[in-house]
Amino acid sequence: MYVLAYLDRANVGFAQQALHDVVGISDAAFAFGASIFFVAYVLLEVPSNLALHKVDARLWMCRIMGPHSLGASLANRTVLYFGLVFFLIQMGVSVVVFYLPTFIGKLLGTGPNTLVGLVVAIPWACALVATYAVPKAAGRTGRLTLFGGASLAVAAFAMFASAGASPVISVVALCIAVAGLWAVQPIFWTMLTNCVGGIAAVSGVAMVNTIGNVGNFVSPNIKAWADASFGSNVAGLIVLSVVVLLAALLFIGARSTTRSVIPTLLT
Question: I need a surface site. Which of 97, 131, 217, 260 has the fewest CB within 10 A?
Answer without folding.
Answer: 260
